[in-house]
Amino acid sequence: MSAKLEAIGLGKRYGETVALEPTDLTVQAGEFLTLLGPSGSGKTTLLQMIAGLVAPTSGRIEIAGQDVTHVDPGKRGIGMVFQSYALFPHMSVWDNVAYGLRMRSRSRDEVRTAVDAALAMVRMGEFGKRFPKELSGGQQQRIALARCFAYRPSVILLDEPLGALDKKLREHMQAEIRRLHKELGATFVYVTHDQDEALTLSDRVCLMNDARIEQIGTPSDLYDRPATRFAASFIGHSNLLEGSLADGAVAGSEPILLAAGARLPLPRAANLAPSSRHVLLLRPEALEFVEPKQGFIDGRIDDVVFFGSDTHVQLSLPDGSGLTARCSRTLSPRIGDLVGLTWDPYRTTLLHA
Ligand SMILES: Nc1ncnc2c1ncn2[C@@H]1O[C@H](COP(=O)(O)OP(=O)(O)OP(=O)(O)O)[C@@H](O)[C@H]1O
After folding, report:
1. Do 188 and 313 share a structural domain?
2. Can you name the residues that pair with 20 across neighbouring β-strands?
3. Hey, which end of the chain has fewer CB within 10 Å, N or C?
4. Residues forming beta bridges with residue 232, ordered by sequence position
């Protein structure tokens, strides 16, 4: 059971504060869409308007083609899971999960079947008789998920549901949420400010900044083809080298950017406006080490940081700016060494400054 969700010109102001500029957003039936962005960018406001907990100042919301802008939260066919599990402390796990169904006046048999199925789905079938305080944080969050899934909403909204968990448990629960999304087949809208979580979980990521959508696309669209400087720097580790195009823009067959005290090749298809300043995005993993003067630019190694599977090398470039490269464990970079750096220009992205 899933439904398409649409926001059309949906906006929210609090007096002078714009919490969300009028925004268009379509979430396909069964899709997992994540709202990602810094604090205050409008993620929660957008989610709460979809839920019906906050009234929009402009625009409307449609679920499965029906305008629900003025429909009560409980009648929108939406389930919600928050960071705080908000379980009822005086009720057993089983009764917590049954609560929403009883509120919806389902028959006893229906309630029993749905609660047992929801607890099994979150692998908590054995815990029905316990009370919330007898569970770990991760287990409580599973119960909060089960409580939402039990009545099979077609759209499920999750606001930082793993925010209170430690890193290891968080990663484990991310895998669980992916599995549950597949099993339920519902439309998921998920809020997080953790970019790794957004990239791991989502079919598409909606990156928000300053009360509007900065970019929306698949995780690889955002990582490999960021549309703006903000998107490039918010997602993944980025080296951003700012400069201007070399005279005539084309030297040899490739256009050249003058940046960081060097002549850097650009992808030929880059969108070049000769007069403006440009920023070249180089991901650490796109860089390769060669002998000094054999690459596009030389750098001096300032620091070497061990990351387990690989090593991050901090370098200073000819103009004094810094850059991070990733290098395999087989190389042994030494602080103070001068190295050359090379890359495939087609694995870089050119942005307007
Ligand atoms: N009830 C309110 N009254 C006034 N301003 C509000 C209210 N709720 C939110 N805002 C403002 O609207 C903007 C967007 O807030 P919102 O909570 O949607 O951001 P967010 O991206 O979810 O941030 P966070 O990650 O910190 O939760 C912020 O500037 C916030 O201060």
Report:
1. no
2. 12
3. C
4. none
pLDDT of residue 100: 84
| Ligand 1 nearest atom to the CA of residue 15, by list position | 4
Q: How many angstroms separate the CA atoms of 11 and 19, rounded?
A: 8
pLDDT tens digit sequence for 111-147? 999 999 999 988 899 999 999 999 988 889 889 999 9
In a shared domain, residues 219 and 289: no
Q: Is the separation of the CB atoms in 284 and 239 below 8 Å?
A: yes
Residues 241 and 211 reside in one and the same domain: no
The count of other CB atoms within 10 Å of the CB of residue 9 is 12
| Residue 170 Cβ < 6 Å to ligand 1 | no
d(CA 231, CA 74): 35
3-state secondary structure of 65: coil
> How far is ligand 1, taken at its centre, from the CA of residue 156, in Å?
21
Beta strand pairing call for 239-251 and 66-67: unpaired
Which band of pLDDT confidence, cut at 50, 70 and 90, is reported for residue 313?
Answer: very high
- Among 10, 12, 16, 17, the mutation site with the greatest number of ligand 1 atoms within 8 A of its Cβ is 17
CA separation, residue 72 to residues 7, 40, 54, 148 (Å): 17, 26, 11, 17
Token duo for residue 124: 């908590």
Q: What ipTM was estimated for this complex?
A: 0.96
Q: Which residue range(s) make up the domain with 345?
A: 237-352
- pTM of structure: 0.89
- Our CA angle for 236, 238, 241, nearest 5°, is 165
Task: Indicate the number of domains in the chain.
Answer: 2
- Residue-wise pLDDT tens digits, 202-230: 999 999 999 999 999 999 999 999 999 99
163 Cβ inside 6 Å of ligand 1: no
